[in-house]
């Protein structure tokens, strides 16, 4: 099974989607449909760790990469989801370099950070061959593969993006266009020049540092556009939206 | 809020869908998209009463009619879902008139059947005005509104359909085309003349008895066709299928 | 801790209540308030085995006797609740002696019935001293203590009550006054002479067989009355009703 | 359906209660009994977001206002409960103005704070008409309606109450009499002059700022008294206490 | 991944264990330890379908064969567990050939039985290549692989074993030594000649019909013995027992 | 029932284990096997408060002491687990004296800290005799019994151990050997002199302050060794490891 970090290194431009239903069957369907990854959204959803863990297990069964968007920076939010097998963590609302450093402290083993060590599900509780080359090699490889990706969606983050993305251990940036535009006082006006400049700035700065940039797209048309603009990955809509919109089309078509 | 039994009496041809995710958020989205009812599928899904009860509550909140497909005929399967507010029960695999009578025994109050009585959630635990006109008026009205709908999907049911649909308290018939075709030895060959004759027979017999006929349709095109053929309601696909097929389209479109 | 079967043998007239919230904290509160037993109502509630098991554990922790009202007669409904520690099973809607015999088959070990044997939680998984005197002594004692109590609430059961209560292994009768009156065509008219005769008949017949009779009472006044009438136990109202009625009083009092 | 913020503006003196059972059926019963709001207590209860979300949905179905007492100040505790539809947040243990400002940062959209934006259940996932007048009007109106209410129950908060309640975005104050008296070294001695002075101070300061004051009352007598004293709302006891106390009365009455 | 039916056909003598904790992590550990299959015990445990489904998914993720012991014969118990991916069903307490036929009716597709058809998780909801060779080939192959295994643990089953095991679609027999010995009046006296004759009879009759025989063994010594006696598979102890016994050894050793 | 704080005061050298399955049945088995306490591990496990609360209740039912390892320092993590009955809290990853003081603020009532007060399950919701001697006596006694135990597993904590263990209200220290060795750059090399010196330092410093020291041991041999070295308590392995290792032995033995 290919990790999302491998896909990005290979320049594959993986596509994914948000999971807001909190349903592992929905996670399974997203995998069956051919997506490369999903992001379980714990920021705006009425569920938490238990549902995320279910979706992560399903991801491993079906060969899709599981990422988790946590609701806030905390040791538990980062450590526990990595310990059940998330390949990466998306962090909303980040404002400062200090916060980025905290993320690395919680999410990377020594010497990059101080992630707590325990042989959990992610390494078959230590009974498989995860430690065949020693614990240090295991923690080194895990540090390399684990993706820690702050969202750029506040004015503070946008202003300090170069400093933030330079933190060792930060893997890339995810642009949240709605909150960013709201913070800029131009809600959902994605065609405004200042918004376009903002995302171009993020793209340029990150690519200089060799770090990938993700962005959300509400539909496939925008998704294609963003890929053409040079984004490394697009997260297209979310499970409940895709379903609702498809049903709207069915109702309209039958009632017509 | 309009009941599905009212819609059918008014000749409205309500449309619905199956819920196989077992997610009340999915139920909510189906309501938001404008469907008239959903059928929580407890026959082929890995969930049960708890999830069904969640979806029923969500239906009442959003003004969509909740139906439940139970996995087998039993007092608990019928009584407990009606007690939390299902407007009707779909019963798979029925073969005999005796089974139809059992359904009525469990699902209708005396004198039609012997449904157990208790002031539950469905009548505000008795504290609202449900019993304003006495218990007998309450049980009479409930008997009138509660829909008990066996599926016609076995050879035995098809052969004895007139006898089965004549049972007092049985509200109509739901045709399960896949299992029916499988039972006939022509799996999914819905254009075969013998299959067409079979569903015409069910339609004719039921309409003579003034009882509505529902049928499943895998997509909106078939749904429109079935409505033109005279079916009283079409259940279009299911939540997980609608979502998966929409994602397949997204993946194909972006990767093209 | 005193079993309910002991209390009844001692002539103690235990009082209990129904649990319809499905909440183990509610079960705990009922124990703290001093009730002798509760009946988890799986007949009319939107929950099942998991919640019942939680309430049973809480009962054992707090020293109150746990009974379960099952939604229908089946091996699983009887066996699984006894295996987690219910002291007895209340069975609704019974009509025939054959059904009573089935209950005993599922609920009592050989030679009375054929209850499946397994060292479960109820006997510390066999690691405690439950089998100190051998398995046969264990099954004998369990048979003696386990209460199997059908409800008398159908015309058929009322007519054949002597025959039904005579089945060896049936421990007593629980009168469900609402359904019984509904079946008699006099819903909730508990002062009608034919209703009074009916419950007197059940009392007389059961006491001749030395088997206790339980009855439901919607409030404490009726409860006291029933105890004076010779009932061996009264089940007073249910958790959600007691709570709702107390809140109604609070609202009325403050708004007055 | 009337919001609690509307009731307060209208000078209605809404009454509510705590939910400590974590049961949506209990929430339903509180609504049926006629309470204006409830506060799901996540501070001292063994449950969390999932149960709170269930109770919020039930509130919306039954037309009662749902508030949540969170266990501590954090972005997730505030954002996630608002995103599923809580009308307000009660915050225990507050000590400083800085904490009050943090609450506003997490709980109000820009420009008051920086609450993350996402079309969730609270606005029909964006498919209804919530955004008919634009996103800015939506966030403005939501900011106006959302109640952020710190508890005054520490010495620090009492001393700095004027400063704290002046923070823009803080909607009012909730007095926790037990913890406040404990902090003052006079546990549960509510008749002590220094305690009376303390609550008078809070009332006076808040009313000068036109912000409502809530207080907890353990029973209906105290509730009436507090309303007479000028409190804008009283939260009367909690679901498990009301139930336990009602059962105690039943047991006493029958055993007498 | 090898199916248990393949292992048995190859004469591999697979070993397994019971799962009584109802924990998918426990299921995972049993897989990691190298067992060939597990049997989720729904007969004597306080959990049900949801936990079984979790364990089945974990089995598929870890490459171990999932079997389910159901609490009683019913359409739902058989159909729903097969639909989420159980490779076989163990049925306790069977007495008659009629019951064996019912099991086949519910557990095998036409023409052997009348199992309801639906593209569920077990075939990737129909979106994979499960139906590449048509539905009939799919149902034929599924019928061939699905194991339906009654327990021999009643006197009636023992007496009629030849007739029972001859039912087409019944895959083999599982001997439950405790209940069988209890039924014979010699509880847990497995060295009695009449008990030895009984199990020899079952072995001989089944092997004549080319159907495998499973037996439970409480420990590894007995397990080895049973394999030497010619049993095709041994189910060794259960998860909670293995754990408890290991802890007993730890406590004894440290306290010594 | 003996509290763990009593056992330690008596010099009993209690032994315990970690719970990583999150299963209350596993908790029950650990009690049955004779352990003195368990630590529900919320740091590295995919579960949380709900499962911890279940295990705590089971502990009280079976007479074993429940401790909780929280994932990070926060008011909710400490308060809520104490409110449902945990006898103590283990805190991972501690670095500074300030953090130790925060733990006391959240976990001890005034005057030591400012733990929020509410009559919860731990004191029978105030209806028992917990407050017979007044609230102040209750909070004093609870402060005395509640164990707050930071882990020593970072270089910072090791360096400042004397300062940290001196905080009033901190009950003792738990050495996490794996993370400590990882932080020292010598992962799992417990025989290195610098590692031995480190744990000797912790032992000496804590014993001078009359505070007990716990340590983790992966097996019974190491456990005995640690007790001989003067540790006050050893936490031996965890439930899922004990089970997995026992199954590995079974598989090896049968396959041999
Ligand atoms: Mg955002
Ligand atoms: Mg079908
Ligand atoms: Mg009844
Ligand atoms: Mg407080
Ligand atoms: Mg058995
Ligand atoms: Mg550690």
TrEMBL record, chains A, B, C, D, E, F:
InterPro entries: Aldolase/citrate-lyase_domain (IPR005000), HpcH-HpaI_aldolase (IPR050251), Pyrv/PenolPyrv_kinase-like_dom (IPR015813), Pyrv_kinase-like_dom_sf (IPR040442). One of its GO terms (molecular function) is lyase activity. Residues 15-234 form the HpcH/HpaI aldolase/citrate lyase domain. Keywords: Lyase, Metal-binding. PANTHER family: 2-KETO-3-DEOXY-L-RHAMNONATE ALDOLASE, PHOSPHOENOLPYRUVATE CARBOXYLASE FAMILY PROTEIN. Belongs to the HpcH/HpaI aldolase family. This is Aldolase/citrate lyase family protein. It comes from Suilimivivens aceti.
């Amino acid at each position: 099974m290919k990790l999302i970090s491998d896909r990005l290194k290979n320049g594959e431009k993986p596509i994914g989607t948000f999971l807001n239903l909190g349903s592992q069957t929905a996670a399974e369907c997203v995998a069956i449909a051919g997506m490369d990854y999903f992001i379980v959204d714990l920021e705006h959803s009425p569920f938490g760790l238990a549902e995320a863990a279910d979706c992560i297990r399903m991801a491993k069964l079906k060969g899709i990469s599981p990422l988790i968007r946590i609701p806030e920076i905390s040791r538990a939010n980062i450590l526990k989801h990595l310990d059940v097998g998330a390949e990466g963590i998306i962090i909303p609302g980040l404002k400062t370099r200090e916060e980025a450093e905290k993320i690395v402290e919680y999410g990377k083993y020594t010497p990059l950070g101080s992630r707590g060590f325990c042989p959990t599900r992610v390494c078959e509780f230590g009974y498989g061959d995860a430690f065949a080359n020693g614990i240090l090699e295991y923690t080194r490889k895990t540090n390399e593969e684990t993706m820690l990706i702050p969202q750029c969606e506040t004015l503070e983050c946008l202003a300090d993006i170069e400093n933030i993305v330079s933190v060792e251990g930060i893997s890339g940036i995810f642009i949240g266009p709605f909150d960013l535009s709201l913070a800029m006082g131009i809600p959902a006006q994605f065609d405004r020049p200042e918004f376009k400049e903002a995302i171009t700035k993020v793209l340029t700065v990150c690519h200089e540092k060799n770090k990938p940039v993700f962005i959300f797209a509400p539909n496939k048309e925008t998704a294609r556009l963003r890929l053409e603009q040079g984004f490394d990955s697009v997260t297209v809509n979310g499970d409940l939206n895709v379903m609702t919109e498809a049903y709207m089309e069915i109702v309209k078509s039958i009632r017509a």
